Task: inverse folding
């Protein structure tokens, strides 16, 4: 799994078209979304993650929690992003892992949104620009 973490004044998105034949089913309300004072986490789920999804979810949540505590962010945006890796997991496996990351972060007490999966989306992001505002993490099961 590859993550790009951007501490931002806000992230907002708007769903445009389907990027997969069978994207995630979403409500009208989910077609647009915004969080302010947010740690935006762009996530590419990778093929290797399918070997141990539970471990990858656990490690991803630990990394996100660590960065969130460093930048003092309580709001987290989990954003499916297929452009951080050339070895992508299947859409089914990726969506399951992203949903599990979202759920675990909520259990940890964060205010979490997850952008819809399998759609082209317009988005606006306002990076805060401080030294910890742009970070990346790579997670490999078994390592
Ligand atoms: N492994 C993955 N990790 C994260 N997001 C993914 C993954 N696979 C699919 N997606 C989601 O599905 C969307 C499309 O995925 S994609 O791999 O880019 N596929 C396409 O764009 C297809 N139109 C042509 O392949 C992505 O924008 C993302 O929302």
Result:
């Amino acid at each position: 799994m590859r993550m790009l973490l951007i501490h931002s004044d806000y992230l907002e998105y708007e769903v445009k078209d389907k990027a997969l034949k069978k994207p995630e089913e979403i409500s009208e309300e989910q077609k647009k979304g915004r969080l302010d004072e947010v740690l935006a986490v762009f996530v590419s789920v990778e093929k290797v993650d399918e070997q141990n999804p539970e471990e990858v979810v656990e490690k991803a949540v630990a990394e996100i929690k660590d960065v969130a505590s460093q930048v003092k962010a309580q709001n987290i945006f989990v954003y499916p992003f297929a452009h951080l890796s050339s070895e992508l997991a299947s859409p089914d496996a990726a969506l399951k892992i992203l949903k599990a990351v979202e759920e675990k972060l909520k259990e940890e007490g964060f205010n979490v949104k997850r952008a819809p999966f399998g759609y082209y989306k317009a988005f606006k992001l306002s990076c805060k620009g401080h030294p910890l505002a742009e970070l990346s993490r790579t997670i490999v099961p078994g390592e």
In short: The chain has a mean pLDDT of 98. Residues 19-20, 43-45, 80-82, 88-89, 91, 94, 117-118 surround 5'-O-(N-(L-seryl)-sulfamoyl)adenosine (CB under 6 Å). Residues 77 and 113 are 5 Å apart (CA to CA).
